[in-house]
TrEMBL record:
HAMAP family: Dephospho_CoA_kinase_GTP_dep (MF_00590). GO terms for molecular function: GTP binding; kinase activity. The keyword Nucleotide-binding applies. Pfam families: CTP_transf_like, DUF359. One of its GO terms (biological process) is coenzyme A biosynthetic process. This is Cytidyltransferase-like domain-containing protein. Residues 8-133 form the Cytidyltransferase-like domain. Keywords: GTP-binding, Nucleotide-binding.
Amino acid sequence: MRFNLVAVAGTFDHLHLGHKKLLEAAKENGKKVIVGLCQKSMLVNKLYPQSIESYEIRRQSVAKFKPGQIIPLSEIYGPAATSTKIDAIVCSQLSRPNVEKINQRRHNPLTIIEVPLVRCSHGQPLSSSLVRQGLVNRQGFFYPQIFNRDLKLPLSLRPLLQKPFTPVIKKISRPKFGVIAVGDIAAISLLNQKIVPNLAIVDLKTKRRQIFPHLQALGLKSGLTAPNPAGIITNYSVRQLLNCFSQKQSSLLIDGEEDLLVLPAILLSPLQTTIFYGQPDQGLVKITVTEAAKTKALKFLQQFI
């Protein structure tokens, strides 16, 4: 049975596979579809708000599904609570409580079409929050699972990784959000500019020569530690990196070499994080963590052995 008019609502931030299932279900079940799109006022309690897309970007993403109408929402009810033209409403298990609140306001309750949750490759429901947190992509691939074993840099990849990930910068500008320094020179350079990184990944060496006796001499507080031999990204060092994020540790001291940890730092940190690392004999490289940067890092890591 197809309804004349079906409603669906949401934030639709970083429109992902779960959102697509909702919008597709609305189109399959309705001759016409109306989409309620949350405005900024409804997003104040969202996690990782710095990377929530603007209303216009989210509207453009939804518009690609060619709904009959997209309306801004400033609260959960919108026209679905009163319109006599809407016949049914699409939701997920997570948004169903709001749909039931809408029906409580109506004289003739809407037919509820519940769409199964899309789950990430690690089993959790796919959400925009996880995408903004930087742990999954829009298809639900859970980035940490690529590190379920130690990864070894192949000889064929070395020339590519010796090139800067992005162009070397001439001047350090103060980032708006989280900052990660990978390498002692990067940490020193930031501290000299009175920019205290949220996390510094260091080994107390430069060009494999010991230059600092301990973290305090570098100007950093003690945090977590991990072994990580040259040419390797160990499973343990990645787990410690994730622990630094969750525990808000400000340093990760590496026994070995930290250079390659730039890649997991890009892949696992929240969107809009800024990462600095030193390019030997050239200067500092600044990376803004975006979905594109994560895709580039992932392609490198998939070539490790």
